[in-house]
């Protein structure tokens, strides 16, 4: 599971 | 950060600037779909809510703020300042048919069932189809001004470069996000037909005109 803070792209 | 990602972000930024400058200089938003611009504003708003709770880098924060501001600025120019030039009769795509499925899909297929995560997923799904009203407008009028074509080309390039960025990240960082990748490929495919017309017509100095 990925947390929101892992969304490092724009 | 790799070169594909940086070039992708710069293409995206350039697309947005081209659009704003075109509207400002010509004092007209003819040929531009306000529906697509509304969808992009919804996309950025739902995705960049993480400005509040997640810090990635100054670059990331600044770009997010610029995208949000430019997107709302475009909507202001289209729906307020230059409203009289807005091609409302041709811009008839029903955006609820894109928003509703993107919302339902985000609730079903996501990385985690949390409010911000679902909004992020929704923004990814919606972005993949947000250009459809614009492409529909071009197909309805049968033509696009060169500057509108350049805008669409930069926007499509941004998505294509992001695919190279994901391939690079998969090998170099072992990082991948299937939701973003699948939606990004769908989004890029939507531009393929346009890319073909752009390369065969616009780059040779002709107007982008669809066969009657």
From TrEMBL, chain B:
InterPro entries xrefs: ER_ret_rcpt
GO CC annotation: endoplasmic reticulum membrane
Keywords annotated in UniProt: Endoplasmic reticulum, ER-Golgi transport, Membrane, Protein transport, Receptor, Transmembrane, Transmembrane helix, Transport
Biological process, per Gene Ontology: protein retention in ER lumen; protein transport; vesicle-mediated transport
Topology in the lipid bilayer: Multi-pass membrane protein
Domain of life: Eukaryota
Gene Ontology molecular function, alphabetical: ER retention sequence binding
Transmembrane region(s): 62-80, 92-113, 119-139, 151-172, 178-199
Cellular localisation: Endoplasmic reticulum membrane
Family: Belongs to the ERD2 family.
Protein name: ER lumen protein-retaining receptor
Gene source species: Laodelphax striatellus (Small brown planthopper)
């Amino acid at each position: 599971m990925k947390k929101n803070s892992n969304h490092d792209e724009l | 950060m790799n070169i594909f990602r940086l070039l992708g972000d710069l293409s995206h930024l350039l697309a947005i600037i081209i659009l704003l400058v075109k509207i400002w200089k010509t004092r007209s938003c003819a040929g531009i779909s306000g529906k697509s611009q509304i969808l992009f504003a919804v996309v950025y708003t739902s995705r960049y809510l993480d400005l509040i709770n997640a810090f990635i880098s100054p670059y990331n924060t600044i770009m997010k703020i610029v995208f949000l501001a430019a997107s709302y600025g475009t909507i202001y120019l289209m729906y307020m300042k230059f409203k009289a030039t807005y091609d409302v009769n041709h811009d008839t795509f029903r955006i609820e048919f894109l928003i509703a499925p993107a919302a339902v899909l985000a609730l079903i297929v996501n990385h985690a069932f949390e409010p911000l995560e679902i909004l992020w997923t929704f923004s990814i799904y919606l972005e993949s189809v947000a250009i459809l009203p614009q492409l529909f407008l071009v197909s309805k009028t049968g033509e696009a001004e060169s500057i509108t074509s350049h805008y669409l080309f930069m926007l499509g390039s941004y998505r294509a470069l992001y695919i190279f960025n994901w391939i690079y990240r998969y090998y170099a960082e072992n990082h991948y996000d299937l939701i973003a990748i699948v939606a990004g490929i769908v989004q890029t495919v939507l531009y393929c037909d346009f890319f073909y017309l752009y390369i065969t017509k616009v780059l040779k100095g002709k107007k982008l005109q669809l066969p009657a």
